[in-house]
Amino acid sequence: MFITVFGQKGGVAKTCTSVHLAACWSHQQKRVILVDADRNRSATAYGARGLLPFPTVPIEAAAKATRSAEIVITDGQASSNEEEMKNLVEGADCIVLPTTTQSRSVELTVEMSQMLRQYKVPYAALLVKVDARKEAAAMQAKDLLQGFDIKVLIAQIPLLSAFEQAETEGVTVDQAIDKRGRANPRRMMGWTAYSNACKEIEGIFEGLRKQDQRQSPIGWDFTPIEKRNAA
């Protein structure tokens, strides 16, 4: 399964989402590789301490590194460049679009969806940095996205200091600790949210895998990678 996490701007938890999707699947004993396609190498920096439960490789090394992977997640460039988008689309079974509840973030996701539709690639928005004190903003963002016929995952990633703490230490949110060295009491809320997002993405993939490949304009192969390797 090839998943690309993509966005048009920074600050939408793109790398955080890539890291945590990869971690959740890795904890399920799946062979996961995170490919860093962002020029800023944000995912590489996140995993620099070697504490993440999966390898992170730059896009230049992806061809060899991903040979035996079951799941490949690409942390895409924050860009609206059409050529970059086309290349990322051709390497993905599904696109995840992290989106905050801010109006500009929603607008950019709508713009991105319009470009993605020409390639007929499956994609879904994931609401991130959702403030529990502002439920109305999350509902409004979801309604706006769905109004443009954009699939929005049910899972929502909460706004938590635990995510910042985890990134500082180079670990995933379930291992976040505060300044006093104590486990962040809300850390598992973030972990559970990403775990739920993984389940939804798997559901999208399984549904698409059953479709006739000839319907796909750029030849996506929905055959599980382990079966392709055995062929």
Fold topology:
Elements: E1 2-7, H1 14-26, E2 32-36, H2 42-46, E3 56-58, H3 62-65, E4 71-78, H4 82-90, E5 94-99, H5 103-117, E6 123-127, H6 135-147, H7 161-169, H8 187-209, H9 225-230
Parallel strand pairs: 1-4, 1-5, 2-3, 2-4, 5-6
Helix pairs in contact: 1-8
Protein described:
- The protein has 231 residues and is of the alpha/beta class.
- It is built from nine helices and six strands.
- The protein has helices at residues 14-26, 42-46, 62-65, 82-90, 103-117, 135-147, 161-169, 187-209, 225-230, and strands at 2-7, 32-36, 56-58, 71-78, 94-99, 123-127.
- A six-stranded parallel β-sheet has the order 3-2-4-1-5-6, sandwiched between helices.
- Helix 1 (14-26) crosses helix 8.
- The longest helix is centred in the C-terminal third of the chain and has 23 residues, at 187-209.
Keywords:
single chain; alpha/beta; 42% helix
Oligomer: single chain
Which sequence of SSEs, written as H and E, runs from N to C? Answer: EHEHEHEHEHEHHHH
Order of strands across the main sheet: 3-2-4-1-5-6
Termini gap: 17 Å
Assess the beta-strand content as a share of residues: 5-15%
Mean pLDDT: 87
Counted by DSSP, the helix tally is 9
Kindly state the percentage of residues in helix: 40-55%
Radius of gyration: 17 Å
Number of strands: 6
